[in-house]
Structure formats: C-alpha cells, structure tokens
Amino acid sequence: MRRFLRENNLTIVFGLLFLAALTGQAIAGHIAYNADQAAHGDKAISFGRYLTSSNFGQAVMENWQSEFLQFSLFIIATVWLVQRGSPESKELDKAGGESDRDQRIGRYAGRGSPKWARVGDWRTAIFGNSLLLLMGAIFLLTLLAQSITGWTDYNNTEIAHHSQAVSWLTYAGTATFWQAALQNWQSEFLAVGSMAVFSIYLRQRGSPESKPVGAGHDETGVEG
Amino acid sequence: MLSSLIGQSYGGGVPGNDRAAFYLRGMRAMFAIYLIGIFGSIGYFIVIGLSHH
Q1: At a CB cut-off of 8 Å and minimum separation 6, what does A29 contact?
Q2: Roughly what angle, to the nearest 10 degrees, separates helices A2-39 and A54-80?
C-alpha cells in the first residue's frame, strides 16, 4: 500500500483536491442559490435537490470544458508550435509529427513499447493520437453537457420571469452561453501562454514543468 | 479493447512478477478511476439537464 501511494500520489492528491473543491463548490452554490430564491420570494431547495439541479451542473461543466479545451489545444499546438527557451516546447528543429524512429513506432519500436505502437497499422495511428482524441472527446462532451444544463437553467429563469422558453439551438447561440464559455477560455489561454513564456527565464527546482535551475535561458525543451 | 491496450502497454511486460504486476494494476486502476469518474459525471449532468427540462 505504501508503495502504491508513493508511485501514484500525484493523481491521488489531485483527485482528492478535486473532490474537496467540488464539495465546497456544491455547498457554496447551494447557499447562493437559496439566497437568490429568497430574494425573489421563492422556496429554498434541499442540498440533495441542488446536486441534481441544472444550475449546479452548468457551473461544473462550464469549468470542465474549458480545462479540457486548454489541454487539448496545448497537446496539438505543441506538435507544431515552438517557443525558444521554454521547457513546454520541443526543440525548434523538431516541430511536426517527427519520424517513426524518433517516435519509436513500427519497426523502430523497442522491447517495452506498447503493442499498438509496434504493429504499425491503423492501431498505431489511433494510439499515436489517443491522448488528443480522449481529451478532445471530453471537451466536446462537457461543452454539450454545459449547453444542455445551461439551457434548462436559462429556461427555468425565463419561465420564472414570465418569458418564453427557447430551443436548445437558440440557447447555444445566445450571448449568455458564449459569455460563460469565453470567460473561461480566455483565462486558460493566458495561463498556457504565461507558463510557456515565464518558464524561459524563471525556474522551480525539482519540477518537471521547469528547466533545471542551472539550464541556460535559451535551452529549449529541457525539463528538470 | 481499451483494457487490452492498457494491459499491453503497461502490464504485459512483467510475466511471472506478481508483485510488480500488482502495482502496475494500481496504475491501471488510477487510469480507470479518472476515466469512469469523468465520463460518469458528464453522463450524469446531461441526464439531469434533460430530465429537468
């Protein structure tokens, strides 16, 4: 068990942090929702009912989609785009998909290579893009979930204000939906750009997200 | 298909080494927990969004 914790503590700790933050969001969201209900003279709802509300679902999915968009774009963009001096970038002359030898696929696969990297057919093509495929699929599904929960929440508000409910497609074209999406996207893009550029000149000793402390500022693609 | 892929990738190279295989299973378990948790949550929110409409 001790060895298991030592070898997996990055994903365990972030999983626990996620659960703690989600719990906090649910509690705070429930209080805020009921305060809004009281302000409008409506009845408060239970915590259990709030957890199954579109209001909560929209708040969670709105943030998930932007995070998975960020990583999906980062994965695909860093195949071709480079930043001299950044540990987040490949070396400048390696931009692109790289050779089979560099990627250790097909006949260049090693003894420990995954089977799908060795076979060299369609399975290698899928496996060679599997991280982007998964992260991209999660982004699209979370964006869909945000649009559905947001649509329901939007219509509940419209009906409460004696206005007309709208279709899902109409909601997906509203400024309300895109404001919620873009306010998250802009912060993710800024964070990625900042990480790429600040890590040229700044260091964090021991972190693989940083260059070694003694690495030159113009060394690219070197991780500590 | 996915389990065979992950098995081949990370757990298949240690025949006869039960202790190592046990810990590699732990690695696969973390992968599965994240995957199931994420897709389960997305499905949950889609269902509640549609059911309350």
Answers
A1: A50, A55, A56, A59
A2: 130
Q: Across the interface, do B39 and A149 touch by the CB < 8 Å criterion?
A: no
Total-model pTM: 0.89
Query: Mind listing the pLDDT tens digit for each residue in A36-93?
Result: 999 989 999 999 999 999 999 999 999 999 999 999 999 999 999 999 999 999 999 9
Predicted-complex ipTM score: 0.90
Q: In this predicted model, what pLDDT tens digit does every residue of A4-33 receive, in sequence order?
A: 889 999 999 999 999 999 999 999 999 999
- Tell me the chain B residues in contact with residue A112 when contact means C-beta distances shorter than 8 Å: 13
Structure tokens at A177: 């939906």
SS3 at position A111:
coil
Q: Smallest Cβ distance to A141: which of B12, B27, B42?
A: B42
Q: Are A161 and A168 in contact (CB under 8 A)?
A: no
> Which amino acid, residue A135?
M
- CA torsion sign for A10, A13, A19, A23 is negative
Q: Which residue has the tokens 């070694």?
A: A212
Q: Quick one: A113 exposed, middle or buried, by C-beta within 10 A (0-12, 13-18, 19+)?
A: middle
Contacts with A7 from chain B: Cβ below 8 Å:
23, 26-27
DSSP category for residue B8? I
Residue A161 DSSP one-character state: T
Rounded to an integer, what distance in angstroms lies between the CA atom of residue A103 and that of residue B5? Answer: 18
Cα dihedral value A154, A160, A163, A167, nearest 10: 30
Rounded Cα gap, residues A54 and A151, in angstroms: 8
Other CB atoms within 10 A of residue B52 CB: 17
Pull the structure tokens for residue A58: 């929209």
